[in-house]
Design brief:
Number of domains: 3
Largest sheet: 5 strands, parallel
Distance between the termini: 51 Å
CATH class of the largest domain: Alpha Beta
Strand content: 5-15%
Helix content: 40-55%
CATH topology of the largest domain: Rossmann fold
Structural class: alpha/beta
Shape: elongated
Number of helices: 21
Strand order of the largest sheet: 2-3-4-1-5
Radius of gyration: 29 Å
Order of helices and strands: HHHHEHEHHHHHHEHEEHHHHHHHEHHEE
CATH architecture of the largest domain: 3-Layer(aba) Sandwich
Number of strands: 8
Length: about 450
């Protein structure tokens, strides 16, 4: 290797490169910025770079739902999971798989395939105008449907009763008038809407929206993540979707013979107290196993040597199967490495420094608050216990007492509660209780 090339590689990687070093090694270190960028997008909607299909691993429950959607009609499903577990990614993966060309059937279907729609939910008064501005398939279909409904409305009302001078014509003092029909022909939809009035326009837009998505084979509705105290917003959104679903039954015409399948992503913490939920087939999206998180990282960065294999597994275990946490913990580890100027690869000890127990406790708060609603100290001890079991495996209860430095009765209560909620399992061996993680 020439001195010039060796110097260039040292600048790129910050590493000392022996003369006989594999030429691919600097590239593995040089992708640190790529890893940082990938991990910085915590939500599936904002993720950039290579397609998610290049590294996404579909959980079994999502694969099962995908198969059901290809065989049934009019199904109503709720994909339930904790915040950050990957509900949006699962819906996007289903959308991507359903859009793939299907093998040629023995009996060729003369009808064109029905559309598939992914909708990031919002209140209808904001959702429909937003979709009307979109340049995707759904936006184009909705604009076409809305234009047809506007024309039909103008014909029914009749031009003679709606001949009104425009503002420009009034200012000129002319006697010419512009009809709604002429405005439509000139694509002046805004003026047509102004003359029809707000209430009429909202009704027509909603009707166009119902007709547009009612033609679909599958509708994937991604609900937002809610505050645990915002049940009013949850109820309002569910009510709107219920009437949307209910209105499909009144649609007539050859394209509406079969009701669409509907899948709604739903935050597990909020899955309660609404009659519409009882009509859905609930499918729980469980946290991913640590090995799946590591595999997703390796699929995206197959040659990366930023983390040791043990460190990646530790990051995955700390994340408790929540993909969003996994990405955030990777970012925290990279920030710590940059701040301390420690050499690569990042080790497990460095990760423990970058992500102390109080951060883990904050992230698990959503789940552990349900178990220990008024005991933040117990939530912290629970995190320490779960992290110890993830790293070291099953442990005697007496050892747990020494680890946490708490009395026997506190350990017993902690283990009892975590066992009730299927975080851990307890097995009697001789005179000792052995505590182990419950496999998700």
């Amino acid at each position: 290797m020439s001195e010039k090339n060796k110097s260039k590689k040292q600048v790129e990687t910050g590493a000392q490169i022996p003369d006989d070093e594999d030429i691919r090694l600097p590239v593995r270190f040089a992708d640190l910025d790529s890893v940082r960028e990938w991990a910085s997008y915590l939500s599936a909607e904002t993720r950039k770079g290579p397609r998610m299909g290049d590294w996404y691993l579909m959980p079994d429950e999502v694969s099962t739902l995908l198969r059901r959607l290809t065989r049934e009609q009019g199904g109503l499903h709720a994909l339930i999971g904790y915040q950050g577990v990957g509900k949006t990614s699962a819906l996007l993966a289903i959308h991507r798989e359903l859009r793939k060309p299907q093998p040629i059937q023995q009996v060729q279907n003369p009808n064109p395939p029905k559309p598939l729609h992914f909708i990031k939910w919002d209140r209808p008064e904001r959702l429909i105008p937003r979709i009307l501005r979109q340049e995707d398939e759904l936006g184009k279909r909705l604009r076409q449907s809305y234009g047809s409904i506007l024309e039909e409305t103008v014909r029914m009302k009749g031009d003679l009763n709606l001949i009104i001078p425009s503002e420009l014509e009034r200012s000129k003092g002319t006697q010419e008038v512009t009809t709604l029909k002429k405005l439509l022909q000139s694509f002046n939809v805004a003026e047509v809407e102004r003359r029809l009035g707000k209430s009429v326009v909202e009704r027509l837009r909603y009707e166009a929206f119902i007709r547009t998505i009612g033609e679909a084979e599958v509708i994937l509705i991604d609900l937002p993540d809610y505050s645990r105290t915002d049940m009013r917003r949850v109820s309002s959104d569910l009510e709107a979707i219920y009437w949307l679903w209910n209105d499909f039954s009144r649609l007539t015409g050859p394209t509406f013979n079969d009701l669409p399948n509907i899948v709604i992503s739903f935050q597990k913490e909020m899955f309660r107290n609404h009659y519409f939920l009882g009509k859905m087939n609930g499918i729980e999206l469980k946290p991913l196993k640590p090995q799946m998180l590591v595999e997703a990282y390796r699929k995206r960065f197959p040659n990366s040597m930023i983390f040791t294999e043990d460190t990646l597994l530790l990051l995955a275990k700390m994340s408790r199967g929540v993909f969003r946490r996994f990405l955030r913990y990777i970012t925290l580890a990279l920030d710590h490495q940059e701040r301390t100027s420690t050499p690569l690869p990042i080790t497990a000890d460095q990760v423990r420094e970058a992500i102390p127990p109080h951060i883990l406790a904050d992230d698990m708060d959503q789940q552990l608050t349900e178990i220990f609603p008024r005991q933040p100290d117990m939530r912290t001890e629970a995190v320490k216990l779960l992290q110890h079991l993830e790293e070291h495996g099953q442990t005697a209860q007496t050892k747990i007492k020494e680890l946490l430095h708490v009395p026997d009765y506190t350990v017993s209560r902690l283990v009892n509660k975590l066992e009730d909620y299927r975080y851990v399992r307890r097995e009697r061996k001789g005179i000792e209780n052995i505590i182990a993680l419950e496999t998700p």
